[in-house]
UniProtKB/TrEMBL annotation, chain A:
Keywords: Cell membrane, Membrane, Transmembrane, Transmembrane helix, Transport. The keyword Signal does not apply. It is found in: Cell membrane. This is ABC transporter permease. Residues 96-280 form the ABC transmembrane type-1 domain. The keyword Protease does not apply. One of its GO terms (biological process) is transmembrane transport. It is a multi-pass membrane protein. Belongs to the binding-protein-dependent transport system permease family.
UniProtKB/TrEMBL annotation, chain B:
It is a peripheral membrane protein. The keyword Transport applies. CDD domains: ABC_NikE_OppD_transporters (cd03257). This is ABC transporter ATP-binding protein. It comes from Marimonas arenosa.
Amino acid sequence: MTDTNQDQLMSDSVLSQREDPGVLSMMLNNRAIFWGGSLLLLFALIAIFGPLFTADPAALNPIKRLKPPSVEIWFGSDFLGRDIFARVIYGGRISLVVGIAVAVIAVIIGLFLGLVAGYVRALDAVIMRVMDGLMSIPAILLAIALISLSGATLSTVVIAIVIPEIPRVVRLVRAVVLTVREEPYVEAAIAAGTRLPLIMVRHILPNTIAPLIVQATYVCASAMLTESILGFLGAGIPPEIPSWGNIMSEGRTYFQISPWIIFFPGIALALTVLAVNIVGDGLRDTLDPRIARKM
Amino acid sequence: MSEGKAKPVLEINGLTVRLPEGADREFAIEDVTLSVSEGEIVCIVGESGSGKSVTAFTVMGLIPKKDLTPVAGEVLLQGEDLLKKTDRQMRAMRGENMAMVFQEPMTALNPVMRVGDQIAELLEIHTNMSGTARKKRVIDAMKDVSLPDPNKMYLSYPHQLSGGQRQRIMIAMALALEPRLLIADEPTTALDVTTQAEVLELIKDIQRRHGMGVMFITHDFGVVADIADRVVVMQNGKIVEQGTRDEIIAAPKHPYTKMLIGSVPSLTPPAHSHPETDDAALKTHGLNMVYGRHGFLQKGRLVHAAQDVELVVRRGETLGVVGESGSGKSTVARCIVRLIDPTSGDIDIEGVNIATMPERELRAFRQQIQIVFQDPYRSLNPRRTVGQSIVEGPMNYGLGADEARVRAEELMRVVGLAPEALDRFPHQFSGGQRQRVCIARALAMEPKVLIADEAVSALDVSVQAQVLRLLRDVRERYDLAMLFITHDLRVAAQICDRIMVMQHGVVVEEGRTEEVYANPQHPYTQSLLAAAPGRDVDFAQLV
């Protein structure tokens, strides 16, 4: 190699500086993430701080039973005279907590199992067949079974929803691992004597983050819906704690004379799930354009 | 072949195509003027990014209009300006007046449709032929490209055919409507060298018989020497030189053309003054790799990727392993690095057999064998700086962060890159620079054996020459034993002291490079050497 060649190469490498815009600014520039995220943030703030300013969601007021929405009671009252507005806001806590808890737990467990299944050939078949088994269990049925065994608490509901969600995460992570493990840079790391745990954390795990965040939003949205369905069926959160599902369930009998009991929690649920899904779509478009095209 | 009086099929005058904003230059191609006459083959040659494909796609009207906009010039096909045509008119012209053959026939064909039907579809769209007439025409077209047993092949799916057969189908498809202009975009780059020779011969033959004009895009001067009547050399979107084949190849005027032609490795091995030593760094004995196994329920299909491979690489020498795709040459390399576990046999590194060593013990030996891969874009983790990639190995073996950094800086200088570039990410480097980084990463382990698995195959010819020079330098500097895996006989001739030719997993010939090239013994070696494009021209001698 001559010196001129070397100088040229060196200046070349200095010239070819190309900065990527930051991931954060890219996300904020995405309209879906911005609006969906704002809506979700608003709901979260209302759910966290709202109950401090509203009436007691459990306070009975038999005189004001089944009142339609008015300036005084915004969302009307139910058959025991409880304030629907206060109940819907309080129910938001349950939905968000269940959604987020299920997403986080399912992702953590699924990520671990997916990494193992994708990389350790011997365990792949075992883990995946167990996952196939889990996938065949209907979430609602499992929840009803679990709740009748150990009682209706928030944690039972979360566990019941987490279990059928795990296989979806495992499959996704495994698929990513299977493609990345064949990359020459992973093979180069093996040839360089990097130990397996470090290869996982350093070279393979980072590739799963983007699709996982996207998947987590979908898991979150579907968990909120499942929680509401369970509440509606009377198999979810106990009736003394208001959740969107059980508010709607209690309003079902009065649907024809006072539809607002079902209408407002229904709207709240629909808007929240929509906001989560919009954020998910936006994240998918910015974080992982490749997967976006596949879906 | 090119006579002044022949009627031009295609004339491109002052064509300029603008790139989207934020690209590294303003125009994809600028002021391109060329013509293709009836009965001549015009080769457009250039390295990646030269704009040769954009030119072809502009003629075909296949450029994405949103990103690439023709801003000046005209493209006249038989006197009609294609840039003024509507999409509907262009659709009618594609196939009937001009047709294109792509680089990768597997992706250009629909995998779930019989190949015969795919050709017939073209006739169905453009003509009013009856079903039987169409089928007859398709069979004729398939006969025309010398496909064996066209009646049976009509019913085949793309995956049932070989790469060469698929490319013949593509050519038959392009010719079905007898266009006056055929555009071939690197049509033989994805093919093995013997198949490449056949397909080139076919294109020449068909062009002669049908008297059409062919615009042939390639990066390979060997191919140019074999096929071109006239040559157009492009660099950074501009034409730097054009002329007849003999003018360009024998007497290039522009420095860039001279550099390109001078970079083509000669098929004649240089005289090696390599001392024979007995200091074997790497030895294999009876190395076997069998894929597939008898399944629990079904009878397994066994593939012998490597059979009884015996090789010796001594310190300071390069052993070349040459073969076409599927010959097992990469399998041998991957076994030796122990990325895959060989089925049986010995791999001796400095006298220790590592072939069946469990990973725990193997770790101590991994350091001694390092590998450089083919694809510079995938061999570096895109999320880590090149510095982090280089120090990863040495730090695995207990080198402190500061010492590793010092070693990395030194190696960056060795491979001809600025040490300050260690903190950059791979996407900030060009392909050749990345390959240099990969070499530095391998050297950081202070190996005794360096394996280059098609390490220069993905690079442009000028960059290829530089990386080859670098590989030769580091081999001497560190007294490495090098195993050089390649399909390219020209490259092998230049860098290898000894050559091993593989076919279907078996070593068919082995010997000193000069002897093998001068006097090949095995018929397969002979056919490989005979098929090397441009074998009649010794490029390096010309400049």
